[in-house]
Design a protein that fits this description.
400 residues; VC0802-like; Rossmann fold; disordered N terminus
């Protein structure tokens, strides 16, 4: 992939609330095989407008996202196939009715997707001296409805596309007024109309895509911009902060994350997740044989128990239990199910560390095992967060 001068030569002349979602469970074995893409010896058909879902993911997890999209599409009765390259940070799912498929696969239910878009144009060979003119022409030819309510110029996060960040910023500054002049963008940003995404894959290649503001991530490239607080014991605090921000909507955070709630942090040391709970006003029992940051102990809101997080149980029901223990994911899922079955807590957030291979299969198995062994109706949401690594984060709430 060639690098392009960030400045380019483009000139002017040339959070929404998320509804609660129940995890769909494992894909049944009888869902049927997914359609296969054309063989390498055949000609790949050019998709028509709106014939591809475009989803971002963590670089290296393209096979997991492709498998998830393929199986979920088959379950909902849609033909198609996934197309991607390892390390690219995105997956395209080709379908004859991608718009309808997008409606059948709500973004909050997707685990490995950071963002979900409906791609409607793939522009290649864009001239560096004027990318705006062919982009406007592509919009006119696309049949898309005017105007869009907002614009995001971005790139999937990968080693190859990181050099495009400056280009995306500068191009967005030039493109925004040009779109407004041509009637393609509302005078003020809002979430009442589709959002336009201009996705750089190279200096001369751009994808055009649309997003429903209420069925997609609000953040550019699907990445929430969080910073490590200097007093946080570890960077793992960002994982729990992101989980509370993305797995709960605004109203749920107001109702479920409150002062003086009682919480337990299993496998707490050095205290990153405990710190987040304490910062949200909770009183925390931190369970770990390892040491905690002294500032947490001095706060008066943290009780450190030197015990095994897999065997400890509370004497009375707590509001929250969180767990980021490094352990086999099935063992963690089983222990978390025990907590919910015995009603030792009302709400839970936990991480499942995934194996190096068959990570989508392990994800399905663990979530299915957790829901089955919990033995009561739950609302379960799972996501590979930006601050997660080889893991996913799971939220469990009592079902309404």
């Amino acid at each position: 992939m060639r690098r392009t001068d960030a400045a380019g030569a483009d000139t002017l002349h040339g959070p929404a609330p998320r509804a609660p979602v129940h995890f769909a469970g494992a894909i049944p074995d009888n869902a049927g095989p997914a359609p296969t893409p054309p063989s390498s010896g055949s000609t790949m058909p050019t998709p028509r407008v709106g014939d591809a879902l475009l989803c971002y993911c963590r670089a290296g997890f393209e096979p997991e996202l492709a498998a998830e999209l393929t199986e979920r599409a088959a379950l909902t009765g849609f033909a198609g196939y996934a197309r991607t390259e390892r390390g690219s940070g995105y997956v395209e799912f080709m379908s004859d009715d991608a718009a309808q498929l997008s409606r059948a696969l709500p973004f909050p239910q997707l685990i490995f997707a950071r963002q979900k878009l409906l791609r409607f144009a793939d522009l290649r060979g864009l001239p560096a001296h004027d990318r705006i003119t062919p982009l406007l022409a592509a919009l006119e030819a696309s049949g898309a409805s005017k105007p869009f309510g907002a614009l995001q110029v971005e790139h999937p996060e990968s080693d190859e596309t990181k050099p495009l960040a400056a280009l995306a910023r500068s191009f967005g500054n030039a493109l925004r007024p040009a779109l407004r002049k041509a009637g393609w963008l509302t005078p003020q940003d809002g979430d009442h109309r589709q959002r336009l995404h201009v996705v750089f894959l190279a200096g001369d290649r751009v994808l055009l895509a649309a997003a429903n503001p209420h069925d997609s991530s609000e953040w550019s490239s699907g990445i929430p911009r969080l910073r490590t607080h200097p007093s946080a014991p570890s960077r793992s605090a960002l994982k729990l902060e992101e989980a509370l921000l993305t797995l709960l909507d605004h109203d749920e955070r107001q109702a479920l994350v409150r002062d003086n709630m009682q919480a337990a942090d299993l496998g707490a040391a050095p205290g990153g997740w405990t710190w987040v709970l304490m910062r949200n006003g909770m009183k925390v029992t931190s369970v770990d044989n390892g040491p905690l940051q002294q500032a947490l102990l001095d706060s008066g809101r943290v009780d450190h128990l030197r015990a095994d997080g897999f065997s400890w149980q509370p004497k009375r029901r707590l509001d929250w239990m969180v767990c980021d223990m490094v352990e086999q994911p099935r063992r963690v899922a089983e222990r978390m199910a025990t907590w919910m079955r015995e009603e030792w807590c009302r709400y839970a957030i936990f991480n499942l560390k995934l194996p190096m291979k068959k990570r989508w299969d392990e994800t399905r198995l663990c979530l299915e095992l957790f829901e089955r062994q919990a033995g009561r109706p739950l609302t379960v949401r799972a996501r590979q967060l930006y601050h997660d690594r080889e893991e996913i984060t799971v939220l469990a709430l009592p079902a309404d």
